[in-house]
Amino acid sequence: MNERRVVVTGCGVLSCVGNNVSEFWDSLVNGRCGLGQITRFDTSAYRTHIAGELKNFDITNYMSAKEAHRMDPYTQYAMVAADEALRNAGLYIEPGEKRADGDRFGAIVPSGIGGLGTLEREHEVLLNRGPRRVSPFLIPMMIGDIASGNLAMRYDLRGPNMGLATACATACHSIGEAFWMIKRDDADVMVAGGAEACVVPMSLAGFCALQALSTRNDDPLHASRPFDRDRDGFVMSEGAGVLVIEELGHAVRRGANILAEIVGYGATADAYHITSPAPDGNGCARAMQMAMRHAGVTPDEVDYINAHGTSTSLNDKFETLAIKSAFGDAAAKVAISSTKGTTGHSLSAAGGLECIACVQSILNDTVPPTINYENPDPECDLNYTPNTAVKRTINYAMNSNLGFGGHNGVLLFKKFAS
Fold it and tell me: Which one, out of 97, 120, 220, 305, has a CA that is 20 to 30 A from the CA of 323?
């Protein structure tokens, strides 16, 4: 592989279980679920009434109300998580300042769905008040790449800048593609991850129509139950997960605190179905194998897998098969968990949040649990770290994300050693 090594130097989180990395990790380790009844709109006509909404969040703590008004909530979430990540990395500058190395500093923090809430609101304006009353900010607010653009303008990031959309693998692929940009010397630093503001009527209606969501409406704290026999669908949530990743030499020269190293990335397609993973888990398995091949590690060296683990019947079964296929005999020994029991499924943001969980697992030598695991499923028979966190040395942690359309993304992190 290219000799340029890529390290993680900053993390930022906005989630239903915490508005910063510390709160987020504490909730994961202690199995504190952030799901509850939807409060923003009337859900009485829907099959599902629950989601993971942000709590105690005020965007005016981070920017002016005027600036926020010109951003869809997904972009606001991306900006807040990136703010924390840049501060954590020691690379924050005040908005409007110039960055000496801005040509080598890029951003990929998209949303797979984009500003759906903005589109809903402006469509209502169109129907009720006519086309001349639609906001001139509609298009720039709703497109899925605009958070990356806003980050570039706010923090003077003049390097590679884009937004890609691979459904629930979006953040994972964004971090992976940013990793390769640094590897091939197109950038020295990248802000990468994903954001989602999907707890809106249209999104809820669409996923209800797919019958993809849990209907355990009277018990939201136990509704997301990855790998459990009685799982009945995922619970939608929102937020953002953003990493600052950096070329090792660049990080060392500026005295950065290095959190972990990215050593492998895999991206494949199932080429099978618009919503279901491939029944044999082949696509996900090949992505896992690709990431391990890039890293030059064997399956028995991987200590922890943060699985996609959506709490849907098909995903959890087929992802289990993927792990067995990719890891062989080592599948029975690797620690696995899905943190979506705690956070719900934040769609495009999921990979960002879960990569941060991997980094924190390495830093703390702790496997966060899969909560609500009560009744084993004979088709899901690996070690999912049920209900209680486990202390163990974690040298390598893998994150797996699968997206509608058959997109598979896998990232492999390593405990940093110079």
Answer: 220
